[in-house]
Design goal:
By secondary structure, the protein is mostly helical. Helices cover 88% and strands 0% of the residues. The chain has one domain. It has three helices and no strands. Helix 1 packs antiparallel against helix 2.
């Protein structure tokens, strides 16, 4: 993972954890004041968590794309490249065994 993406991800993660704690505290206050029901507070928190998961998946996809691009630029074989070569090698071995 590039240093820039890593720092951005960690910054976002720290902000999310801090935000979650603040949101949880605020929701408890609203429940205590009877401005929200416990169920409404759970729903708000679940929506927050779901959005965080969605964002995490986006970061993971972005990180994967960047890593693939860097590997290509450096001329490194990807897992897919190696698997393709293994398949081709297996086919050649099978053909050689049939010819014997």
């Amino acid at each position: 993972m590039s240093d820039f993406l890593k720092k951005g991800f960690l910054l976002g993660l720290g902000a999310a954890v801090s935000s979650k704690e603040k949101l949880d505290k605020k929701l408890k206050e609203l429940v205590d004041k009877n401005e929200l029901t416990r169920e409404q507070a759970r729903t708000v928190m679940q929506n927050f968590v779901d959005k965080g998961e969605s964002t995490k998946e986006g970061w993971s996809a972005k990180q994967y794309e960047e890593t693939q691009g860097m590997a290509k630029e450096l001329g490194l074989a990807t897992k897919e490249d190696i698997n393709e070569l293994r398949e081709r090698l297996s086919e050649i071995e099978t053909k050689l065994q049939l010819d014997e």
